[in-house]
Design a protein that fits this description.
The protein is built from 9 helices and 8 strands. By secondary structure, it is of the alpha+beta class. 12% of the residues are buried.
């Protein structure tokens, strides 16, 4: 059995694209294993750099209406596990009488969005905005039903703003349908999207 190692486009942590000539060479299984061992450190460095990049990724949203900036906050991408927990929390479950098991029903989309926005917000901005007790009391005084930080998000952000933030969070987390962006992403487009919220 033989393997093939191909070289192609490489993207480093600085997002500078370097092209290498594509060469295809057939290797035996032993030669393939040797190539892997020889390049293992470079491979591991790339994996660790990708993990560090994902852990340190941030995006700042400015909430502007009528040409006036009201406030801004910074978010980081959530882990897949965190997103799954949030989705489970805001999904109703119904017992299927025929099968005798619980099945997922409706997702409370409004609470789900607010929870994702809250949990992705950096801690300092959570304290200043979403968890701010004075703000919560002021919103209650204006007739808003405020019990927790999710209600503050519901009161402060318009539905369209929450939708745009969710789309930007998806891109930040690596979920994208745009083939031009791929998994590399385009920082300028993300910054422009965040500014236009």
């Amino acid at each position: 059995m033989s393997g093939a190692i191909k070289s192609g486009s490489i993207v480093d942590g600085n997002r500078e694209e370097r092209e290498t000539q594509a060469k295809e060479k057939e290797f035996s299984q032993d030669e393939t294993q040797q190539q892997i061992r020889e390049n293992e450190d470079t491979f591991l460095e790339g994996l660790l750099a990708a993990a560090d990049y994902a852990a340190n990724e941030e995006m700042t949203f400015e909430i502007n209406r009528g040409g006036k900036k009201f406030f801004s906050f910074t978010v980081t991408p959530l882990s897949e596990e965190a997103l799954h927990k949030i989705r489970r929390k805001y999904t109703s479950y119904e017992k299927n009488r025929r099968l005798g098991i619980k099945v997922a029903g409706e997702l409370d989309v409004a609470k789900y969005r607010c929870s994702v926005i809250y949990n992705s917000t950096i801690d300092s901005d959570k304290e200043k905005i979403w968890d701010n007790e004075k703000l919560q009391e002021a919103l209650k005084g204006k007739g808003h039903h405020i019990i927790n930080a999710l209600d503050v998000i519901e009161a402060l952000l318009l539905p369209g703003e929450k939708e745009k933030i969710m789309e930007a969070l998806d891109r930040l987390g690596g979920y994208t349908d745009d083939e031009d962006e791929g998994f590399i992403g385009d920082e300028e487009k993300r910054i422009e999207t965040a500014k236009n919220l």
